UniProtKB/TrEMBL annotation:
Domain of life, per lineage: Bacteria
UniProt-recorded name of the protein: LysR family transcriptional regulator
UniProt key word DNA-binding: yes
Originating organism: Paenibacillus antarcticus
The UniProt record lists the keyword Transcription: yes
InterPro entries: LysR_HTH_N, LysR_subst-bd, WH-like_DNA-bd_sf, WH_DNA-bd_sf
Lineage: Bacteria, Bacillati, Bacillota, Bacilli, Bacillales
Amino acid sequence: MIVDTLKVFVTVAEQRNFSRAAEILNLSQPGVSQHIRNLENEFGVQLMHRSSKQVKMTEAGQILYKQATQMVSLYEAAKEKIHVLRNEVTGSLRIGASFTIGEYILPRLLAQFVNQYPQVDIQVTIANTEEIAQAVHSKELDVGLVEGHVEYSEILLRPPFMEDEMLLVSSTAHPLHTLRTVESQMLQDQVWIFRESGSGTRAYSDQFIQDNQLRVTRSFVFNSSQGVKEAVVVGLGIAMLSRWVIHKELESGELHHIQIKGKRFTRNFHIIQEPKSLDTMAVKIFIQKIRELEPSLTIIFEKKSQSL
């Protein structure tokens, strides 16, 4: 179908790279190249300048790109309306989530979504906030769920869908374990366990240390919350982590919550999208379900928190 070829052309034009377009479309690179050659043969002009580093549009390619994006958009809109008439939600949904959301919250969301809309083909990418934002910006993902600050001003940052509580934790053998509450200055010269740069949790920890003007004796960096958590459990240092990540360890007594007198620490979870991307019915309903399910997730979590 010509629409499929136009989709390939639009993706290559936006990514400016045949290999990246092939990955996004789940096609082979020769297959992508063949689609472009077919279009060039049909129009009798060169549409793209190829090089080993980047693809550049010719003047004819730029004209076709503007029209092709509209044609693909109209086709997808028509397909969605027909599916709605049949009470079906189909198509693909490419979701990206930062680690805390992707490992502890997204599975709950998807379990209910998939049960209600089994015909939607879902692909999930879990990475840190910066990597998810990059993928949304380059249109490799339809929607991103993140907890950190997003650097791209071009990305659409939707209102928060959930508040997340951040806790400072240590092992049960740490000297601060015996204190009910501490003053922030009692945290001077501690060993800290951090996530990697680009992580929303790392950004929050860095801001906490800066705001309280804390000296860090030494630090260790892990590229997952699980790694940070395990390092704290065995006494390597202290860390700031989401309650979602550590609620089981707090309940079992493996970790100690270092409570800072008179303070509670929170951050927001956000939905991010590329403003010019086409919102398919699957994307629209998924975002709607996130907002509908948030109260139930909060209730589930509050019950767990009350048991600690």
